[in-house]
Amino acid sequence: MEGFAEAGYPYFVARGQKGYNGVMILSKMPIEEVAAEDFASLGHARHIAGRLENGVTIHNFYVPAGGDKPDRAVNEKFGQKLDYLTEMRDWFKANKPKKSILVGDLNIAPLPHDVWDHKKMLKIVSHTQVEVDHFNDVMAAGDWIDVTRQDIPEGLLYSWWSYRAKDWDAADKGRRLDHVWATSDISAAAHSSRVLRDARGWEKPSDHAPVFATFDL
DNA sequence: ATGGTAGGTGGCCTA
């Protein structure tokens, strides 16, 4: 934590399970934890929410990846992913977000231009129709706006490239799995979204690249 | 239809 403070982020809210999963929101300003839900009762640490002193709430989600086969009858993890999204939807229906930002690895690329090959990817977990339907239901339930696509509506845009490609940059078989959303009451304050694609080429990189957005609030 | 890479933890599982 000292390292984060030295880097200019003395405040945070976080949940984690060593060796498994975790979410964290670092802040330059005081932030108070306001929620940490265990959707689909997985016993995981995939959600944290904090509120800043200006009244803005920030959610960070790590939606389950969902395994390989997009069929809950043979792949329990896929069912858990859908259930996770269904419970997110119901929670946002019951707790209508206002002045809120949602970020995270949502493990779904919702739009045809969020993947390198829409037709091929329709059979691949992260871009199947049932996942996109669940994803859109969560957005509708919270009146969420996709800030990244508000700023960058056109063109292929990815935030993740598999480790398994021999040359991720040349093959460029990416997916936009990481998202920045805002409720419609503050979405007009968002601008300057971008993906730091260069980070995918750093030493010992994550397979995800950072997604940025700026809010004037 | 399959394998490909990376990581964390501990000898395999998940992403």
Question: What does this protein look like?
Answer:
With 217 residues, this protein is an alpha+beta fold. It contains six helices and twelve strands. It has helices spanning 2-6, 76-94, 118-121, 129-142, 147-151, 168-171, and strands spanning 11-17, 21-27, 31-35, 47-52, 57-62, 100-105, 144-146, 160-161, 174-175, 178-183, 190-195, 211-215. A six-stranded mixed beta sheet has the order 3-4-5-6-10-7. The radius of gyration is 17 Å and the shape is globular. 35% of the residues are buried. It binds one DNA strand of 15 nucleotides through loops.
Task: Explain briefly what this protein structure is.
The chain is α+β, with helices and mostly antiparallel strands and 217 residues long.
Give structural attributes.
single chain; 217 residues; alpha+beta; 6-stranded mixed sheet; two-stranded antiparallel ribbon; 24% helix; DNA-binding
